[in-house]
Amino acid sequence: MGCEGVFHLASVVLIPKSDPKAEVLDPAVRGTLNVLQSCKKNPFLKKVVLTSSISAVARPSVYPKEPLDETSWSCAELCEKLKAWYPLSKVLAEQAAWKFAKENNINLVTVIPSFIIGSSLPYNLHTTASNVLSLLKGENETFAWHGRMGYVHIDDVASCHIKVYEDDTAEGRYLCTSTVLEGPELAAFLAKRYPWLPISLSFNDYVQKHPFEYNTSKVQKLGIKFKGIEEMFDDCTIHKAQRAEGTAIIMSIGTVNPPNVVAQNGYADFYFRVTNNEDKIDLKNKFDLICRKTMIKKKYLYHNEELLKKYPNICSFDAPSLNDRRDICIREVPKLGKQATLKALEEWGRDKSLITHLIMCTSSCVDMPSTDVQIAKLLDLRPDVKFYMVYMQGRPWGKPTKPQAGATQGRGETKPRSSFPCLLPSSTNHRQSTRLKRAEEQSAAAVGAAVVTPFALTHDGAAQKHMIERRAKAQQAFLPAIAIIIVVVVWLREESGRRAILDQLKRKLNLQPEKFRAARHVLWEYGNMVSSCVLCILDVMRRRSLAEGLATTGEGLAWGVLLGFGPGVTVETVMLHSIPI
């Protein structure tokens, strides 16, 4: 059995530089005929489906009073006079195909789609979608010359191709279009549906066409039901958000902590009691002094004395405890991730069904299925949500995850989907200690989970458009496409998290004390949650700015710098731009 069906979909779409015939017309016609020549040689062939274009229909010499249908053809002479080379190429190619098919007894069916909108497999959108989406950026000049046009969802175009191939009664031409709109009508619709985008309602040099309509009753008799203009643009803009190459806005932040709270001034007693080290009085007193200097009032932990009694090896210096720690992380981390995600979605005012990506980063929780899958199960996410799991060690903020947190490197794609990194180092560490240095690691350790829901903006990267915060008003919801980035942290080694690093930073950069107000508040109220602290600090700054009636979500200022310090020499910075309140 050989090939029974052929779909010829491609054609040249470009503006010729010097020779329209050689650059556009000949490739379209000869390419189509070459395909049909090969089909002629195939004894098993049953049907050929050719993708034509509405441009082969929509430019007749005289518009009829009735809607345009499959009997309508664009006037070749008019197309040439107007230098409309692409419409002319589609007319000539389809007419040549019908002539060849009739002469060689080939069962040919043509599908004639209008402007195709929706998600796209390649990163770069095809010409049609790119032209239409220029409206979303206020670039109406790119689109003005199209004038009145029909629009159709890519899913409907695909369904139509399959239907005309599989249906033995299908023959001839089939118009495939859902909605006909003038350019200003489309711009008004987009401005109303996506009010946060810079859509312009004014058109210069707009091409006014005859107010034609299309009759698609023929294809509808095959069972095709067209999607509306809302679904077309929602899916197209969601797709662009998933593969955005520009900056991003944090639409909401959700933070949660485990239920076990330990007062810092009593932490030394707790730590030395559960590790059976109460006889080491001198070591305990030194550790207690360190705890009291950390500028922490309380912190949240996974473990309490009941849990540590269940897993005694965790508190022993030399007992094997890796499996116990792993079991706790595998069980508890996804729960925190779910809680933080739901909290972020509640603030944003949108449903979890709109999540497009879930990015999980951790230095532990090694398990199969991995933690991202576990969280997705707990949230009952759609099966088409894209999961990313990043295992990392030693970095406190974003470098190891930047290629993944917003990206698809290694999967045939090169452009980032989100510009916001994520981390999720998680562990439990309450080992018995005979040295101050080892005990010191526990002085500021705390547990927290944070989730951000970033929406990626696609533009050419102008700095003044870079925003990384949003208004805390759920009714001003953004585009229904989000990538969930989860951050859950348990502990950080060495001296990180003690107030000394903030004091030294203040002194070296000669900053005013109020610049550290949010950071010190988070450290005081929650302890050192490492990467989660970053999102908690942003959340505190935003909420405090709103409560105090400041001009922006960045404590009244427009620009800021996020500084991240980790073990060793790890230092990272992120430029932040607030938005007006």
TrEMBL record:
One of its GO terms (molecular function) is naringenin-chalcone synthase activity. Residues 3-167 form the NAD-dependent epimerase/dehydratase domain. It comes from the Eukaryota. Pathway: Secondary metabolite biosynthesis; flavonoid biosynthesis. Keywords: Acyltransferase, Flavonoid biosynthesis, Membrane, Oxidoreductase, Transferase, Transmembrane, Transmembrane helix. Pfam families: Chal_sti_synt_C (PF02797), Chal_sti_synt_N (PF00195), Epimerase (PF01370). Its EC number is 2.3.1.74. It is an enzyme of class 2 (transferase). Residues 491-580 form the Chalcone/stilbene synthase C-terminal domain. Residues 239-395 form the Chalcone/stilbene synthase N-terminal domain. Gene3D superfamilies: 3.40.47.10, NAD(P)-binding Rossmann-like Domain (3.40.50.720). Residues 399-433 are annotated as: Disordered. The keyword Translocase does not apply. InterPro entries: Chalcone/stilbene_synt_C, Chalcone/stilbene_synt_N, Epimerase_deHydtase, NAD(P)-bd_dom_sf, Polyketide_synthase_type-III, Thiolase-like. One of its GO terms (biological process) is polyketide biosynthetic process. The chain crosses the membrane at residues 474-492. The primary product of this enzyme is 4,2',4',6'-tetrahydroxychalcone (also termed naringenin-chalcone or chalcone) which can under specific conditions spontaneously isomerize into naringenin. PANTHER family: CHALCONE SYNTHASE, HYDROXYMETHYLGLUTARYL-COA SYNTHASE. Belongs to the thiolase-like superfamily. Chalcone/stilbene synthases family. This is chalcone synthase.
